Amino acid sequence: MTTISEMLASNARKYSNDTALVELEPSEGIRKEITWKEFDERANRIANALLDKGIRKGDKVIHWMMNSTEWLEAYFGIIRTGAWAVPLNFRFTSNQLKYCADIAEAKAMILGEEFIERVDAIHSQLPTINHYILAGQSSPAYMDSFKDAIRNSSPKPTHIEVADEDGCGLYFSSGTTGAPKPILLTHKNMTCAAITENAHHYQKHEDNFVLIPPLYHAGAKMHWFGSLIVGGRATILKEVDPQCILEAVHKERGTIVWLLVPWVHDILIAMDKGELNKKDYDLSCWRLMHIGAQPVPPELVKHWKQYFPDMQYDTNYGLSEATGPGCVHLGIENEEKVGAIGKAGLNWETRIVSNNGKDMAQGEVGELIVKGCGIMKEYYKNPEKTAETIRDGWLYTGDMARMDNEGFLYLVDRKKDVIITGGENIYPVEVEEVLHRHPKIYDAAVIGIPDSRLGEIAVAIIQPKADETPTRAEINAFCEQNLARYTRPRYIIFDNVPRNPTGKIEKPKLRQKYNQQNFRSKPK
């Protein structure tokens, strides 16, 4: 089976001087591009630089960078050594970095300058990492230069053979306890993602995929893999606002854009208010807009089609354990079924089952399980969790769904209490554990409340200790010191936290009590 690394090498041969990647940073007036030949050679240089430092097949390399052409160069460079790329969320704290590095037993790290301070804070606590390569202008003495690695290493292929089932990427995605779970994806998984995505969205060499979401996700770049397989270019947009998105499509002749619900929402609001005029841009090239990573409100898509009636649309459902998107999708030919997540994707099967694994009748709610070549190899170093999640070849997603009489799947609720806000997962237990550290808090519960822009927002219900009267300002200041920005509750409510006889928080009661309130009009 052809690997994604071989796809890149093939493109360098077939489309040597065609543009492969464009990077845009509008606020700085920066635009740069590289050809397929340059992309391929720069990935080889990174690979050879890592080999020169002793990195070998099966080693793990932490990959902590913001979106850029260099991100992709580094990613392909790592996997060409036979090592596993370990992409990290750019919002991770120093402690989360240490957690991931310790589990991976990482031997090296490639990072952007945005992360120097977080790495410096725990550098002495990362004994397995012997080499740091920094993409930036200045660096601590213990870090090497990304530019030097590119300049001084060989552009020749490494010729390191990898098998389909060899590890390719270790993706950390948090579990219900909030601790990041290491998901091992193989070279075969990556190839399957490329094949499935290309079949779903009919990507051609002439397409230009405008790439906006974070590349560390098992999502955005897997969508682009459908273009990689045919040598279609990508435009990496480093800034996200309605004007930047439309200008990128207009100037770069973008044909495919994968958006998150909040970005679609922002574009529509700007158009409704007259702040953004569709007529100011030539968007005739834009053939497909698709959304994933969170539930998609049908009204949002209907609103979009009022402005773009001839544009294709698709909903994508996926999860990191299934190599990102594609195991279920709506299909651009099924626009009238918006609201459903769709049917099984190419090379995938789906079922809806009861707690004992029996198939549910049509219309009944059960757990969605999927089977296909994109299923992860394992939760790394966690055989118990792997066995719980993959049974008889079926991946248990933890999502509750039902099927209609035409075979379309609809998500009903999440089996676990994960909150998805703007495409990012917030794990309530993790936030609750932090809140419990506050000296004035007796109990705390974090729930997701529907939000028209972000999908959901996190709300914390705080039960103070007797005779204590903490303020919202106090709790917010505490959260700012102890939680990553995107995980902080948007609103604080002082109330009793209901628990059942076994001690579990009765979150359905809290959701029922608070989900009708207009939190945007209330103080935090």
Q: Provide the helix percentage.
A: 25-40%
Rg value: 23 Å
The number of helical segments is 15
Largest sheet: 9 strands, mixed
CATH superfamily membership of the largest domain: ANL, N-terminal domain
| Poorly predicted runs of 5 or more residues | none
Overall structural domain count: 2
Structural class: alpha/beta
Can you identify the CATH class of the largest domain? Alpha Beta
Strand content: 25-35%
The CATH architecture designation of the largest domain is 3-Layer(aba) Sandwich
CATH topology annotation of the largest domain: Rossmann fold
Spatial gap, N to C terminus: 53 Å
Q: What is the number of beta strands?
A: 27
Mean pLDDT: 92
Shape designation: globular
Reading side by side through the largest sheet, how are the strands ordered?
2-1-11-10-12-13-14-15-16
Explain how this protein is built.
This protein has 524 residues and is an alpha/beta fold. It has 2 domains: 4-383, Rossmann fold; 419-521, GMP Synthetase, Chain A, domain 3 (2-Layer Sandwich). The protein is built from 15 helices and 27 strands. A 9-stranded mixed beta sheet has the order 2-1-11-10-12-13-14-15-16, sandwiched between helices. α7 (187-201) crosses α8 (220-228). It is globular and about 65 Å long.
